[in-house]
Design a protein that fits this description.
Blueprint (H helix, E strand, L loop, with lengths): L1 H50 L10 H13 L5 H4 L1 H13 L4 H53 L1
């Protein structure tokens, strides 16, 4: 009987070892396939990028050339007043027409919000005051009613 149990244990151990070996082999195969998939994905991305060709933009219009010249002149060491005095006067005229009002708008919005909150608080305060007065009157009326009821009972 003991011999038979030993043989069964050996068979069971062999089967377990074989299952574990097969499983580890399949894990290695899966890892290799994943690496191959990653390599394939990278190569396809590189091929797509290679197909995309950026064409240089041709500056054909006179306006584009003038804009480019204006930008270059703006960042050049020579001031605009020295090189283009009429352009400076024109720019000052345009700046006078368009003023950045973002800061003012934000401050005005905050001020308006504070005023609205203040007004709302005042209304709430007055409503609470009126409610307290109503409660006080109702309490007094109940007291008087109790007194009259007690007085009538005594009679």
């Amino acid at each position: 009987m003991n011999l038979m149990n030993n043989q069964e244990e050996d068979l069971l151990n062999d089967v377990c070892r074989e299952v574990v070996e097969k499983w580890s082999d399949s894990q290695v195969v899966d890892a290799k396939e994943e690496k191959e998939d990653e390599v394939q994905a990278i190569t396809s991305m590189m091929e797509k990028q290679a197909r995309i060709v950026v064409k240089p933009k041709e500056v054909s219009s006179q306006e584009e050339k003038q804009r480019k010249a204006a930008l270059l002149a703006q960042y050049a060491n020579v001031t605009d007043e020295e090189e283009y005095p009429s352009l400076c006067r024109l720019r000052l005229g345009v700046l006078a027409l368009f003023r950045n009002t973002n800061v003012e708008d934000v401050l005005n919005a905050r001020k308006l919000e504070r005023e609205l909150l203040r007004d709302e608080f005042q209304r709430k305060k007055e409503q609470d005051k009126l409610q307290r007065e109503k409660d006080k009157l109702a309490k007094q009326e109940r007291k008087e009613k109790k007194r009259t009821q007690k007085g009538e009972r005594k009679r």
